[in-house]
Amino acid sequence: MMLQPLSLAACAIVLLLLTAGSASLYRGNRRLMIMFSFALASVASLLATIAGIWTVGSEMTVKGILPIGLPDLPFHVRFDPLAGYFFTIIGLLALFVSVYSIGYVQGIPANRPVTSLIIFYCLFLAGMFMVILADDALFFLVAWEVMAGASYFLVLFEHERQENRKAAFLYLVVAHIGAIAILLAFGVLAGIATPGSFSGYTFDAMRGAEIPDLWATVAFFLVFFGFAAKAGVVPLHVWLPEAHPVAPSNVSALMSGVMLKTAIYGIVRVTFDLIHTFPWWWGAIVLTLGLISAVMGVLYALMQHDLKRLLAYHSVENIGIILIGIGLAMIFTSFELPMLAALAFIAGLYHTMNHAIFKGLLFMGAGSVLHATGERNMEEMGGLIHRMPWTSALFLIGCVAISALPPLNGFVSEWLTFQAFLLSPSLPAPIMQLLIPMGAAMLALTGALAAACFVKAFGVTFLGHWRGHHHPHVHEADWPMRIGMLSAALTCVCLGIFPVVYINWMDILAKQFVGSSISSSAAAYGWLWLTPVSPERASYSGTTVFLGILGVVVAVYLLLHVRPGAIRRVPIWDCGFEKLNARMQYTATSFSMPIRRIFGHLFSIREEVSLAPQTAHKAFPKRLQYHLRVVDRVWNWMYRPVVDVCFWLSRQVGRLQQGRIQAYLIYSFVTILVLLVFAS
Amino acid sequence: MSFYYLFVELLQVVLLLALAPVFLGWVRMVKCWAQGRTSAGLFQPYRDLAKLFAKEVLLAENASWIFRFTPYLVFGTAVLAGAIVPIITVDLPLSPSADVIVIIGLFAIARFFTALAGMDIGTAFGGMGSSREMMIASLAEPAMLMAIFTVSLANKSTSLSQIVQVICTTGASIKPSLAFALLAFVLIALAETGRVPVDNPATHLELTMIHEAMILEYSGRHLALIEWASAMKLFLFVSIGIAAFAPWGIALANEMLSLPLALLFLVLKFAVAGVGIVLIETGLAKMRIFRVPEFLGAAFMLATLGMLSFFILD
Questions:
Q1: Is A545 close to B66, i.e. CB distance below 8 A?
Q2: Which of A60, A319, A505, B78 is within CB 3.0–4.6 Å of B232 for a Cys-Cys bond?
């Protein structure tokens, strides 16, 4: 049999399942088990990446029917460029994270069993790959549940803490509400594709069906709700900053980096592939929610002082940016502007890849910090750059990339999104004339706030002096962890300075789903110049910018060091006060105070200053205590009422439970009567 | 021909490096005149730079590599931006490598690292400066982008060279959107370059400084590079303003002979711009830090209005 991408992909999944199955066999030797399992997971991820790159590059579509599934309802698989693209994203990050995990999981205290972590880690990866491969509703939902279930157990890894159990429960509830919506949407599509039979459950049947507008709208909004709950779109995001930080850091990297992307995949697959014709206002809604998620995500991130929570809120922001691209692509497609739609589509999918890589890198970095200090609270950190040079340098690359600064990768995708906004003509819908400029403004605001947030995250964690009260023995990450982070950082740099090569490769997606491509114009001037439409409109060369900055920096450095320049190390200038200590530094809370003040009405903030009772001699001034609580308003506005209603309903239903057998017999009798009346 | 391109590229970088301190000196000189003081002369910034370059570097004990790397990076981005913004001609071989969004991005990366350097030493001043600078930037940068977007929509390009070319060949068009954009641009340029109503470049008064607070620990050649770069930043913002709103006189594509004339225009426009900055600076008092968001919010609204009116009216 000829080697095909699909068989490679299948090998990867089978290998992952085997790894999961065999993990418990060599439980006696923990060290060997960790190394062997994660090495196998890395190999599987590498296979998946190759399969993905191959499929997108060769632009081929392979279909297959698996001999498993329900009787008469076998599982269908399909490996087309879109699936290949997401395979590449997931495979690449999974490869980096699996290598990183070899070191990270070794460092988990020896009294905690890690077998379950390895098993669910492999199942989780296999679930994500299967979601992408699935070509029918049944297999899709099965894979979706495997992914959600495995990640639930991963979130629950440190289950002795109550907050982790709560977070995992919240995650499970939201994941299942989303899954129900997706199930219903597939039901609508399948029911219309072949009424009265089950054969409509394949995606091929749904693709071919003529769906009436009303039902298409119902299906789209159900599916969008379901995937938005998974992706953490505001206002369905509250589970995300709870669940992602409490998982082990390698799992957080995967959840934030790629699990959210399966929801993006779902939205693209259902909208552009299964439903494929849609009115512009769907796109407007996607765009609006994307904008709200982007701005609110970054504002909430700014308020955090838990490093991993901060990163989790940034996932909300970046999912928003991706949806801005997808929403614009939907709008332009329905107004029949395929060229612009292709640009926005590519921008959104480019950002999908970028976010996976830099968010993975940042979570891995946060994991190293957590590993070294045992601390997630930034207010207790500082000065780690001296003791963790590798981690800090690589984390810094992630920070620059996510802040959309040139010449790294985050900038390229935001630049493309800006170009899509700027190229938009006056659209016939009046509301769009408002939404396009406002959208560009909000995207610009998001980028600038993200930069502020990452100055805070990096500055407070790695720079200055150690702020904590206890002084742990901080050590640098070990080699597998460094290699995992280093490869992610290099990928960020490459995606930033060779955008044309990357866009050429992925352009088939735009051709297939929005009917136009931008590679002919984007790469018209060679690999060095990115010209999305024409060189007169806009052009960018990441390589030149990178080399230009590097050249000037090196030249100036050499010029100034022709003579050996004297550097004298001196104590910090303390204004003659002489009693500077580490607690006088700016903290994460004080750093974000100006922004908290400006955007204060968006949060519910409770600030308390209290005088602590005197402990020392009364000649010493009283100690002040400052408490700050910033709460997500969405929680109070949306979730609290729902929770309250659920409890109220349960109590009302509880009244039926009399505890007397006569009452229950009457219930049964009434039920039978009602059924008889309706059945006859 | 390629020799000509290389020549103008080098000429422009040299002009930027040479004229930026002079322009700063000019602004200070006019300011002295306006306030009835005797000025130190047009070339005082050069003397300051020379003095700083000659001095030894005092480095705080716990300064990391970020602190030492930042001056070079800040200088590097300013020089690269100067090689791209059309100051005297649009015929720059590097101009296609970055459009105006990238140029704003270059300033952003310089600011990102300056803010990190401010936090590196671990004093309250550095952190305060970084926090305030990022707060101001997070409002000023989007407003800046919006003002520039309005111009690029009107000229159908985000490349500054192309914008200059289009305005100069098709003639000016007076549009309400451009008026909004210009007003917003002026407000933001004052904030971005740390001029008076937002920040005071001359102050070392502890609680009012922003940019100065971040770079308080710098000395010697590091400080010289940062000071030079911030002079270039001021120069470049005026150049961007000129390119976007009043580009007449900049040598167009394949116009070698108008270079001397372009130089003359450059000097004239900068002389006028310097007087304008001084008028604003002497006419206004520095704002309290929490009035700045209102100032920048107004600029952001103006810029957004400009873009809205472009979509609705034009």
A1: no
A2: B78
